[in-house]
């Protein structure tokens, strides 16, 4: 049985909305990826290569944008349990009910995106991206200098 949570739609950001229940004031958050049918084929598409391919989002990309310095220990502990220790740090979590609940607890502090599995980066890959390139390179040549 898939875990489901009923949330008030005034408190939920669009990336959490999966399906709308019969009540217009409530949204249904499912831990599993969306199972909506693919969009209809455009009239100009003649081969399968031209059809838009649906992307399955399987992970949350969570970035801390606001500091939690003056906030309570429960919020700080929630950020630590998500693996976030400093501002502008990015972590990836699979779509699970536990991760969704933690994100909802600190939703004012973080920015969340749904990303497919191939976009998930490991800690080593993110560290390598931040490192400066070794050596030097000549940017321009000065002429006329004696």
TrEMBL record:
It comes from the Eukaryota. Coiled coil: none annotated. Signal peptide: none annotated. Keywords: Ribonucleoprotein, Ribosomal protein. Residues 27-53 are annotated as: Disordered. SUPFAM superfamilies: Ribosomal protein L30p/L7e. Residues 60-110 form the Large ribosomal subunit protein uL30-like ferredoxin-like fold domain. It holds the Pfam family Ribosomal_L30. Belongs to the universal ribosomal protein uL30 family. This is Large ribosomal subunit protein uL30m.
